[in-house]
Amino acid sequence: MRRLFLALLLASGAAHAAIDLIDDQGQAVHLAQPAKRIVSLAPHITEMLFAAGAADRVVGAVQYSDYPEAAKKIARVGGYTSVDMEKVAALKPDLVIAWKSGNRDAHLGKLKALGIPVFINEPRRIDDVAKSIAQLGKLAGTEAAGDAAAQAFRKRHAALSAKYSARPPVRLFYEAWNRPLMTVNGEHLISDVIRLCGGENVFAKLPVLAPVVDTEAVLAAAPEAIVASGMGEERPEWLDDWRQWTRLSAVARGNLFFIPPGLIQRHTPRILDGAERLCGQLDEARARR
């Protein structure tokens, strides 16, 4: 009986053990116990919390937190660039998880001033997604589920890398949006997906994470393939605007591709679904040489 009592006591203490983690901004975050009321300030963070088994801990999320389906029912606290501070405070969170590139520093400063712990998330490489899922599981007290999801992600990532990363390179222009014409540089997570598939981002060396470029720069870069995302699940009509440039290799060979933004622009497990599509598209481009 005494051993059983001690075992239960130890289990109880472990369940409420303090948590100390370093976030993606290099800041130490301390929780006296796993978070029970979490507010997510980016759609990809909401999705990763679900992946980490912490769905029932999420009490607030920003607009466009729409995956999985159950995420649509979570109370909204504005958009990731326009967080409603009053709504966040009213939810009495014991943790806010924010996105370094998307949320405003002023908003995060106000949350910290209220005494709310803020954990900054910013995946830049594919494996950072697995790391993030494991971290969120630890913060929410669902460490076993988070670690399992992270391990499954890494296994799938390794299989894709073994299959595609050493294939002949394909020079690629990733078109995130058309007006203004936006792309990503080599530090962006999407560029890591491009590398996974044996592709070369033609604008990898630009200093800005999500730079605006012009048509002349794209033509000068002479990509062999153009991949667009856009806003929704449908192929954007503006992808076909490139067809006027008939001498462009990507046009001449029919290498104008589309990937739904939810599969490549969100830092979530689904990015490997987007990677599989991209890898297949670049194989099509190789076959058309």
Automatic annotation (TrEMBL):
<protein>
    <submittedName>
        <fullName>Cobalamin-binding protein</fullName>
    </submittedName>
</protein>
<dbReference type="InterPro" id="IPR050902">
    <property type="entry name" value="ABC_Transporter_SBP"/>
</dbReference>
<dbReference type="InterPro" id="IPR054828">
    <property type="entry name" value="Vit_B12_bind_prot"/>
</dbReference>
<keyword id="KW-0732">Signal</keyword>
<feature type="domain" description="Fe/B12 periplasmic-binding">
    <location>
        <begin position="37"/>
        <end position="286"/>
    </location>
</feature>
<dbReference type="InterPro" id="IPR002491">
    <property type="entry name" value="ABC_transptr_periplasmic_BD"/>
</dbReference>
<feature type="signal peptide">
    <location>
        <begin position="1"/>
        <end position="17"/>
    </location>
</feature>
<dbReference type="GO" id="GO:0071281">
    <property type="term" value="P:cellular response to iron ion"/>
</dbReference>
<dbReference type="Pfam" id="PF01497">
    <property type="entry name" value="Peripla_BP_2"/>
</dbReference>
